[in-house]
Write a structure and sequence with these properties.
By secondary structure, the protein is an alpha/beta fold. 56% of the residues lie in helices and 9% in strands. The strands form two sheets. It has a five-stranded parallel beta sheet, sandwiched between helices. The protein has a three-stranded antiparallel beta sheet with strand order 6-8-7. A hairpin with a 2-residue loop joins strand 7 and strand 8. The radius of gyration is 24 Å and the shape is globular.
Length: 432
């Protein structure tokens, strides 16, 4: 007889949001690895290509830690933060669920919060956050931040502080909203990372940090010569799902929505993606489900997979999610290097076997203008980011796309009117 635990699993669509609990699929090995790091009080930098499920992994870890009861947890999202004071106010407000921590935080801020303290129960969360932020300024943000960390460290349980989108804040400190890098902005970012590093080390036995983001922290810091500020974090690289895990996920989704997805169809879906990013697997299923429903069909075929891949995932309708890859590149690289990254990615997408060859890279280096305005190694900086954040992978012959979906989408979006670097150089040489 088949037991309840042996029954095939069903799974609800995740949509665009993070998931935990029953919607969380697989990643047990990763949960175990992170749990061990938390137990050893090791600060962690979670790295991966975007849409790999970093936020979902952290959220599920915190949920399980809360359930076990040995740790207190705080989750903070800094995507909207503009400066260090914003970050500290966000960490403070998100610790509100820890009673003893919150009481100590309010005591620390009592003089600056004034009569808000006396009517704290009447104040809404949004108003309280505004008041907290107003109490923190350029002259006291480090002291305020120290007080918040001291309050967290006073908790009767060890605290796991998960900080999402820290790299976006650091990048914003370095480049602002205009993507202009200045020495003053570098100093500001350095001061913030130094402060975070100091508190992470001072409270290591009572606070464990888990940092993640939709861009890599190391490329951001490397560009500013601040890589040493991240060496308190042990990297934890989140890989894509295996083909078998993806096939199981598609089967679980199909069972929930009453669709017949034969194994050869599921394998074809994974083959099309090439690199089974969890969100892309579920997005593919969502498009296929809608196609079957509109066609009045219940059984999917390989032909359905081909149609949905070409028509939906690679078309304008499929570009909303993938366009985010471009936006994150511009955010980190700034306008000049961003355009260079677009060219090099398109070169790889249109070339035979999807390779940005070593010869192509040399041509791009040779094409850079020689002047004092070109500092450092722009080509190296771009390739480092593309490799670190999971766009390309280094091979003996050059750089190749990891994701077949991203490669095909990039070719469809940018390849039609693109002239390879070798042809451009040949034309330039012929005219000279």
């Amino acid at each position: 007889m088949t037991g309840i635990d042996d029954m095939p699993r069903k799974l609800v669509k995740a949509g665009a949001n993070w998931v935990d609990g029953e919607r969380f699929f697989d990643r047990e090995t990763e949960i175990q690895g992170l749990t061990e790091r938390v137990g050893d009080r090791n600060h962690t930098l979670l790295t991966a290509q975007r849409r790999m499920g970093k936020t979902s992994l952290v959220r599920e870890l915190l949920r399980r830690l809360d359930e076990d009861g040995d740790f207190a947890t705080v989750f903070v999202d800094l995507e909207a933060a503009n400066d260090a004071a914003d970050a500290i106010a966000e960490i403070a407000i998100q610790s509100k669920g820890l009673a003893s921590v919150w009481d100590r935080t309010l005591t620390s801020f009592a003089n600056r919060l004034g009569n808000v303290i006396n009517r704290i129960e009447e104040v809404g969360l949004s108003e309280l956050k505004v008041k907290l932020r107003a109490a923190i300024d350029a002259g006291n943000w480090q002291l305020s931040g120290d007080q918040v960390f001291e309050a967290l460290a006073s908790c009767d349980k060890p605290v796991v502080l998960a900080i999402d989108e820290l790299p976006i804040l650091v990048n914003r400190l370095l480049q602002g909203h205009d993507y202009q890098f200045t020495p003053q902005r570098r100093q500001t970012a350095d001061e913030f990372m130094s402060w975070l590093r100091k508190n992470a080390q001072a409270h290591r036995n009572s606070i464990t940090l888990i940092v993640s983001g939709s861009i890599g922290l190391e490329p951001v810091l490397r560009k500013a010569g601040l890589s040493a500020q991240a060496n308190i974090f042990a990297p934890f690289d989140l890989k894509p799902w295996s083909a078998e895990t993806s096939i199981d996920c598609l089967d679980a989704l199909a069972r929930t929505y009453g669709i017949d997805l034969p194994e050869d169809v599921r394998r074809e879906m994974c083959s099309r993606l090439g690199w089974c990013v969890p969100h892309h697997v579920q997005q593919f299923f969502d498009h296929l489900h809608e196609h079957l429903r509109s066609s009045g069909k219940n059984v999917a075929t390989v032909e359905d997979v081909e149609l949905v891949y070409e028509r939906d995932l690679l078309s304008v309708r499929g570009q909303i999610d993938l366009e985010h890859y471009e936006g994150r590149l511009r955010m980190v690289l700034g306008d000049g290097l961003y355009r260079l990254a677009l060219e090099m990615l398109t070169e790889a997408a249109i070339n035979d076997d999807g390779v940005l060859t070593n010869g192509d890279v040399k041509l791009y280096r040779d094409a850079l203008p020689t002047s004092d305005a070109v500092e450092g190694d722009p080509i190296g900086d771009v390739l480092y980011l593309l490799e670190h954040d999971g766009y390309l992978e280094r091979r003996a012959e050059g750089y190749v796309f990891l994701s077949r979906l991203l490669e095909d989408w990039w070719r469809a979006r940018h390849g039609q009117y693109f002239t390879p670097i070798a042809d451009r150089q040949s034309a330039t040489n012929a005219m000279s």
